[in-house]
């Protein structure tokens, strides 16, 4: 996996986890994703693990 791909995956993971945190703090509310906050964090951390290999 190239460095560019890893950096892109890390960026995606940070954005997904930041979205989940903002939704938890009720700063940003996206009605379609409210039920999936936990899974957004899981996907974010899994993406970080995938990018760190």
Q: What do you see in this structure?
A:
This protein is mainly alpha-helical and 53 residues long. It has one domain. It has two helices and no strands. The protein has helices at residues 3-24, 37-51. Helix 1 (3-24) runs antiparallel to helix 2. The chain is elongated. The N and C termini lie close together (9 Å). The mean pLDDT is 93.
Question: Which structural traits does this protein have?
Answer:
53 residues; mainly alpha; 0% strand; 2 helices; elongated; single chain
Task: Describe the SSE topology.
Blueprint: H1 3-24, H2 37-51
- Give the distance, in angstroms, between the N- and C-terminal Cα atoms: 9 Å
| Mean model confidence by pLDDT | 93
Helix-strand pattern, N to C? HH
Number of distinct helices:
2
How much of the sequence is in beta strands? under 5%
- 3D shape: elongated
Total separate domains: 1
The percentage helix is 55-70%
Number of strand elements: 0
Query: Over all CA atoms, what is the radius of gyration?
Result: 12 Å
Structural class: mainly alpha
Low-confidence stretches: none
The main β sheet shows up as: none
Could you give a quick summary of the protein structure above?
With 53 residues, the protein is an all-alpha fold. It contains 2 helices and no strands.
């Amino acid at each position: 996996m190239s460095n560019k791909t890893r950096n892109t995956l890390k960026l995606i993971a940070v954005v997904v986890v930041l979205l989940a945190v903002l939704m938890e703090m009720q700063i940003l509310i996206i009605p379609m994703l409210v039920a999936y906050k936990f899974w957004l964090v899981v996907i974010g951390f899994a993406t970080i693990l995938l990018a760190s290999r």
